[in-house]
Write a structure and sequence with these properties.
By secondary structure, the protein is mainly beta. It has a domain of 238 residues. Strands 1, 3, 4, 6, 8, 10, 12, 14, 16 and 18 form a 10-stranded parallel beta sheet that branches. The chain starts with 22 loop residues before the first helix and ends in a 15-residue tail after the last strand.
């Protein structure tokens, strides 16, 4: 049939015909039912969703519910992007953690680890260790009763005890009174040199001095004792010593037994550093055990340089080692009479001048260069020290407990 031949009883105009239900409507309805059934099955596997009446109505509660929902989901990393031409990799989820509470309680707790031992405390700012408490300054060596010879401690009459400190390191003593001068036990740190002026018989022993002045200083000035100055087991130390000890002892007896110096630093252009220097006296100068290193000079002895009234009688040096690296290690001059004389008695025993080009000595007396004739050069490998510092900072010497044999003129 065509438009020219209409069907009998049917309106030829299609706009006037009644609309028929479309097949597509039925098809979409079936699809919607299928999707709803699938959602129902899925929601049943994950748990029923809360009814609308039970859902939170406030934004805060909704946020809490949202976070709780996220927390219940397994954490899966996002799938990696595919490489060019490759296939995307699926996400990998971690397996849910097992409840290990019971297993953890059954396990034995490991023993607590012992703390690692603390590192030893750093060494003191100064290199020498502190010795234990020094014995009383009146202690005498067994073979040296007081007064048996000039080498022994002098006999003291009602001595006054003076204890030095950094704030009391310069003392002026009564020249008619006997004294025992003590240092505090251990390393005795001082910001400058020790000065002991005066006193009659003065005993100075068992001292472990350390000069801390970073700009340098001498270790000590010892002056104007009228009897005997007895120095025993003393360590004159410091990292920046510009000199050891200076003596001004007209008419006195000076005895040094087991005395150790740290290196003294100087030069001709700067300070003239010496281990020991004297410009006035002493009348008797006895050394048994002395060890010193110097970058300029060692024993610089001018007994009448500034005092022509003194008269030297007996000088005796034993067990002395000077490690020099500068000018003259041993110098003697300005001896009376007229600063051109010679010492009446000058004994040398085991006196070593060590270093390159040694011995380097100067004799300014009138004895035809015989003053230092007995000085020895150090053999290859050096000489065992006559005096040394112990681990605790105390001083020892080869002749500990032995009284040196006294020569003529060395009686008390």
């Amino acid at each position: 049939m065509d438009a020219e031949h209409p069907v009998p009883g049917r309106d030829p105009d299609p706009r006037n015909r009644p609309r028929q239900p479309a097949r597509l409507t039925v098809r979409w309805t079936l699809i919607a039912l299928a999707v709803g059934l699938c959602l129902l099955i899925v929601s049943g596997g994950r748990g029923r969703a809360a009814p609308k009446a039970e859902r939170a109505s406030t934004p805060g509660a909704a946020l809490v519910a949202q976070r709780a929902s996220r927390a219940s989901r397994p954490e899966c990393p996002s799938p990696r992007r595919p490489s060019r031409g490759g296939k995307p990799r699926g996400a990998r989820c971690r397996k849910p953690e097992k409840d290990n509470k019971k297993r953890a309680t059954a396990r034995k707790k490991p023993a607590p680890k012992k703390p690692a031992p603390k590192a030893p405390a750093p060494a003191a700012a100064y290199p020498r260790a502190n010795p234990p408490a020094a014995p009383p300054a009146t202690a005498l060596e067994p073979s040296q009763p007081a007064g048996v010879s000039a080498w022994a401690p002098p006999a003291l009459t009602n001595p006054t005890i003076v204890t030095l400190s950094d704030s009391n390191r310069s003392v002026k003593l009564n020249q008619s009174q006997d004294y025992i001068v003590r240092c505090p036990p251990g390393q005795f740190d001082v910001s400058g040199r020790i000065n002991i002026w005066g006193g009659h018989n003065v005993v100075f022993e068992n001292c472990n001095e350390y000069v801390t002045n970073p700009t340098g200083d001498w270790a000590g000035y010892l002056q104007n004792q009228t009897g005997t100055l007895w120095i025993h087991d003393v360590h004159f130390g410091g990292a920046h010593l510009t000199g050891g000890v200076q003596f001004q002892e007209p008419g006195a007896t000076v005895v040094m037994r087991d005395v150790l110096f740290d290196t003294v630093y100087g030069s001709y252009q700067t300070n003239h550093a010496e281990c020991a220097q004297t410009w006035s006296g002493p009348a008797r100068f006895l050394i048994d055990g002395l060890q010193c290193s110097t970058t300029y000079q060692g024993l610089f002895l001018l007994p009448n340089q500034w005092d022509s009234t003194t008269l030297e009688t007996t000088w005796d040096f034993r067990n002395v080692q000077i490690n020099g690296d500068g000018a003259f290690d041993l110098w003697l001059g300005d001896v009376q009479p007229s600063n051109l004389g010679s010492l009446p008695a000058f004994n040398l025993q085991n006196v070593y001048d060590c270093g390159s080009g040694e011995p380097r000595d100067y004799d300014g007396t009138s004895d035809n260069n015989q003053a230092w004739a007995g000085v020895k050069s150090c053999p290859a490998g050096g000489v065992s020290p006559f005096v040394w510092s112990n681990a605790d900072g105390s001083v020892s010497g080869r002749d500990d407990g032995v009284a040196p044999a006294a020569l003529v003129g060395e009686q008390p």
